[in-house]
Structure prediction request, 255 residues.
Amino acid sequence: MFENLKISINKKIEESWQKFKSKLSEKNRTSIENFEEKYRKYKQSALCEIIETVVFVLVMVIIIRFFIGEIRWIPSGSMKPTLIEGDRIIVERYSRFFKGPDRGDIMVFYPPSTNLSKNILPLFSRLTGIFCKDVAYIKRVIGLPGDKIEIKPEADGSAYVWINNKKYEEDYIQNIYEYPACPDSGADIMILANEQVMKCGPFTLGKDSYFMMGDNRGSSFDSRYWGTLKQDRFIGRAVAVFWPLNRLKVLHKLK
Prediction:
């Protein structure tokens, strides 16, 4: 039944098209018929199948990467011991359409220093991952919009993050004794403006600001240096390590 309906509709479309062409001048009708003949030959060629396959694959890659998730690898040790160099991870992207990240989520994002060009080629590269040169980081969400964040050293040489005047206990970081030293309270403002100098706060986060830190606090270039992150810079949340097999694990959300 469906096939008969389809044939009937196609027949009516063909009749309407032929009727439209009959009203055209001979020159225009000839041009259209020449184009139709070339298009028929193209549709029957191997080139057509190759092009349509490539376009279909690219469209599916874009849809999957933008709406569902993607695969990435860890290039540095800034997230040790949770993630180490060479880990292959799965990054889900769908949750960002419904809400912002939660505290403790491990997020992939474009840092403020990455200029996200909106030109066709860079945008295509970001959507497909093909020859993409935009630098992305992976860190953990520590501070949420509206939070007051401060890093306080202890007398024994350790250091802790304080959130809204409460010590934030973290059992996933590399070492509480590896925090770089906080700058002097009377440090020159020009020195503190340098991205290479760690700042300890206190910081009060704005409405659309997140404070990101690596689990390897002694070797992570994060919000302590370059400041807070806007929500539109997030790419997705790391949910699992799938390679190498001896590192296979799910990256659970914190309670």
Remarks:
- The mean pLDDT is 89.
